[in-house]
Write a structure and sequence with these properties.
This protein has 818 residues and is of the alpha+beta class. The protein folds into 5 domains: 7-25 and 35-205 and 420-445, Rossmann fold (3-Layer(aba) Sandwich); 213-252 and 261-302, no CATH class; 305-416; 467-623, Hedgehog/Intein (Hint) domain (Endonuclease - Pi-scei, Chain A, domain 1, Beta Complex), CATH 2.170.16; 655-760, no CATH class. The strands form 7 sheets. The chain has a 6-stranded mixed beta sheet with strand order 3-2-1-4-5-6, with helices on both faces. Strands 14, 17, 18, 19, 22 and 25 form a 6-stranded mixed beta sheet that branches. Strands 9-10-7-12-13 form a 5-stranded antiparallel beta sheet. A hairpin with a 6-residue loop joins strand 9 (237-238) and strand 10. It is elongated and about 150 Å long. Residues 747-758 have a biased composition (Polar residues).
């Protein structure tokens, strides 16, 4: 298995005053936002700890915070275990301050790479800048892009992350392009986890950096780039040669394992059919994270691509060109000029080449991007100016560089490769983000239902998720035979009713929610975007709800047995048909208008694979928020207990660590022959040994005044135990010059000590004296062993009764004779 790429990461974190604003839990439109006390900086620090959690001794991490000035929180440090603990503490100590000096933060981060020795060859260097506002202090006079270009070759790629809606997204995108990195838009707290996870996973799956592709071709061909507008775009140049040769340089920055970089070019002057095809030479230069460049050159023409692949790359170039027109790069003094919006994308979608190949997953995902979030961002000026102008450049950058930047958008999800280094790194980061302890809220909560002194429990998976498609636990499901069973009581193998007959339950997924916004449809309580069938049509509950409700408890999703018929993947809950997981509607069949269509939840194989990584209970029920790790042989805990015992023994020395306890027998017939330590000595035992009951606890003897002696043997054994203890007991005087009468004389005091009375006065061996096994030959032949034992037991129980009866009979006969 291929190992991930070690990284040198410097986090440049904005700690200006605005970072202390509320970071609301992700919510659906129209849903009331609940303040859980977490700030933007709280979640940023949590994301930084997620990155820290996945680093090891081959990685280095540096941290820079900036507000009015930049501060180096930590230089580039190798992430040993001790260093990770110290780094986590430094991250937690960061506090919000005042202004936003972005340039100082970037400059300090770059200097961290220049100040270290190059002892770790082969590490991927990256500078990650996160800010939530516009730089307003000490901006470079000549501009960020010219200033960065004047610094020459940068020691690391620069990745920018913009949080919120008050951004200069064009500036952040330009900085990332000059630095050879990506720009990511984080609209709310719900995206912070997924964006950071994908950004680091892309770094850890990088093969090479500082990559450029140089094309040499005849001037008559007229090649043009199609990846949209970019500050790093370079025009073709005419080489000083007699044959009129042109050269086009394309900066590619980084290459990832498992993901190709496909360059789609357009030529303006088609070659004459009578002439041979022109010669195009492609030269690729790249660096394996060191100053030594590597070169490869080819003039071989690739074979024709399949029509769907050609349509995908053609559509990708058209989408990038379209996004460049709606979000053009402009100087600062022209940013206030609004570009006329193209609010209707239907004409562009109708001519979109990828739309003709709905069965191809890549073409379908690209079409979903255009028909979904892109169209929504341009649907109204309010949407565009609030979030569209920040989101569209981020989406365009992901398609231009062919990187997956979040779980949210279907288009970029086709990048990264399947089952490779990227997916493995992303899975590790995803589990680390959800598994880390929730950050302590730094803000005082406001709103209804907030207690005086505390914050509610924060589940970090809420900041790295989509909506939960589930039914409330109070719903009743129709099962075979017409009965109703609570959905929470479903088990694997239960036969439930579907529109296509009876089907078997394969898995039940249980998720705990708190104050989740849900919809009441008919008699069922369901999450807003879980498709239900009403009057023969599949719709979203949010569109047909009777009213909204707040639900706290467990919600459930069900996976039924595999069936090609999508209608066989539905259950009837409180009279309402609801879709189940893995129903088969993924969009690959080209169907449109079916609300059940979902690339992941409709894919049976992907759902089963994802459920398989969760904790499996006896009945294949899943609970992804209550996974428990059981460590039955804890070496660390053993050592801790051993050290604690030694510390306690040293603290109470020369006294033993425990008190003397009596030997008792178990109070059952079966185990009466076994001995164990009792709670304390009885008063009768103390009296027989000559030890006052008030004096006994002061010399290390436990006392239980409630205990009574039921046998002479037990009394005698414990009296001997007490006498043996007294014989070995040494009492040192509190004041050496004033010994008491009960203290041990100085000439009899010994340096020998005992740490444990249990070890010194061990249990008496189990004695079998007085018991003898009855042999079969001794039993009467007329009766069996069972009858003989039963009679012996009965005789023993009734001996007193029979004696009383005989006495009463004798007394009655004596009285009759008188």
């Amino acid at each position: 298995m291929m190992k991930r790429t070690p990284c040198d990461i410097v986090l440049v974190i904005d700690v200006s005053g605005s970072m202390d604003e509320q970071a609301p839990v992700p919510h659906e439109p129209g849903e009331t936002v609940e303040d859980n006390g977490l700030s933007v900086l709280d979640l940023t620090k949590h994301a930084a700890k997620t990155i820290l959690e996945t680093l090891d001794g081959n990685d280095r991490l540096g941290i820079v915070s900036f507000s009015m000035q930049a501060k180096v929180v930590q230089p580039l440090t190798t992430m040993t275990r001790a260093a990770k603990r110290a780094t986590s503490k430094r991250i937690e100590e960061m506090k919000s301050e005042d202004a936003t000096n972005l340039w100082a933060g970037i400059l300090s981060g770059i200097k961290l790479f220049e100040d270290v020795n190059d002892d770790l060859k082969g590490n991927m260097p990256a500078l990650m800048v996160l800010t939530d506002g516009m730089p307003n202090h000490m901006c470079p006079a000549q501009g960020y892009v010219p200033k960065l270009r004047s610094m020459g070759k940068l020691p690391a790629t620069i990745h920018t992350f913009g949080f919120g809606y008050q951004l200069r997204s064009g500036l952040l995108k330009s900085i990332a392009e000059v630095g050879g990195g990506n720009y990511s838009f984080i609209p709310d707290a719900g995206m912070i986890g997924t964006v950071f996870i994908h950004a680091v996973a892309n770094l850890q799956s990088t093969f090479a950096n500082n990559t450029t592709l140089t094309l040499t071709y005849p001037a008559s061909l007229g090649l043009e780039e199609t990846t949209g507008e970019s500050v790093e775009q370079q025009p073709p140049i005419l080489l000083p040669s007699p044959d009129q040769t042109m050269q086009l340089t394309l900066p590619l920055s980084t290459l990832q394992y498992g993901q190709s970089r496909d360059i789609y070019l357009r030529f303006t002057t088609p070659p004459t059919e009578t002439l041979p095809p022109p010669n195009i030479t492609a030269s690729l230069t790249y660096h394996l994270f060191n100053p030594t460049p590597h070169h490869t050159t080819t003039t071989t023409l690739s074979p024709p691509l399949p029509p769907a692949t050609t349509a995908f790359h053609t559509s990708r170039s058209l989408l990038l060109a379209f996004l460049s027109t709606v979000c053009p790069l402009r100087p600062l003094d022209l940013e206030h000029i609004h570009v006329p919006l193209i609010t209707d994308t239907s004409a562009f979608l109708a001519s979109f080449p990828a739309a003709a190949f709905p069965a191809d997953p890549a073409c379908l995902a690209l079409t979903q991007d255009l028909a979904g979030q892109v169209s929504l961002a341009l649907a109204s000026p309010d949407y565009y100016h609030r979030w569209g102008k920040h989101f569209l450049p981020s989406l365009g950058g992901a398609h231009a560089r062919q990187v997956c930047n979040s779980f949210k958008d279907p288009g970029p999800m086709v990048y990264g490769g399947s089952g490779g280094v990227f997916e493995r790194c992303r899975g590790d980061l995803d589990r680390a983000f959800d598994g880390l302890a929730a950050p302590v809220p730094s803000r005082k909560r406001k709103g209804k239902g907030v207690g005086k002194g505390g914050h509610g429990k924060v589940v970090m998976s809420a900041y790295n998720r989509s909506s939960n498609p589930c039914f409330a636990g109070c719903g009743r499901v129709e099962v075979e035979g017409g009965g109703l069973v609570r959905i929470g009581r479903l088990r694997r193998g239960v036969q439930v009713v579907t529109p296509r007959g009876v089907r078997r339950v394969v898995a039940v997924l249980r998720t705990v929610v708190r104050r989740e916004g849900m919809c009441l449809v008919g008699g069922a309580v369901v999450t807003p975007w879980h498709p239900v069938r009403v009057e023969g049509e599949w719709v979203f509950p949010v569109d047909v709800k009777r009213r909204e409700v707040r639900y706290t408890g467990a919600v459930y999703s069900v996976l039924l047995e595999r069936d090609e018929d999508a209608d066989a993947h539905a259950i009837c809950v409180d009279g309402v048909w609801g879709v189940t997981l893995g129903h088969g509607r993924t969009g690959a069949d080209g169907r449109v208008g079916d609300v059940r269509t979902h690339g992941f939840l409709g894919d049976y194989d992907r759902v089963v694979k994802s459920l398989g990584v969760l904790h499996r209970s006896r009945n294949f029920r899943k609970d992804w928020q209550r996974r428990v790790r059981c460590h039955f042989d804890q070496a660390g805990k053993k050592a801790s207990r051993r050290v604690a015992r030694r510390a306690k023994a040293a603290a109470v020395a020369p006294r033993p660590v425990d008190k003397l306890r009596p030997v008792v027998r178990c109070p059952t017939i079966k185990y009466n022959r076994r001995t164990r330590l009792g709670r304390g000595f009885s008063l009768a035992e103390l009296k027989a040994a000559g030890i006052p009951k008030q004096y006994a606890p002061t010399i290390g003897i436990s006392v239980d005044p409630r205990r009574a002696n039921l046998s002479e043997e037990g009394l005698a054994a414990n009296v001997e135990r007490l006498k043996a203890y007294k014989a070995r007991l040494i009492l040192f005087p509190k004041k050496s010059n004033k010994p008491k009468k009960t203290d041990t004389p100085k000439d009899q005091q010994s340096a020998e000590t005992t740490q444990s009375t249990r070890a010194a006065f061990q249990l008496v061996d189990n004695i079998a004296a007085g018991f003898r096994e009855i042999k079969k030959s001794e039993l009467p032949k007329s009766t069996g062993s069972y009858k003989a034992l039963r009679k012996a037991r009965s005789d023993g129980k009734l001996v007193g009764v029979r004696e009383k009866r005989a006495k009463d009979k004798a007394d009655a006969e004596a009285a009759a004779k008188k």
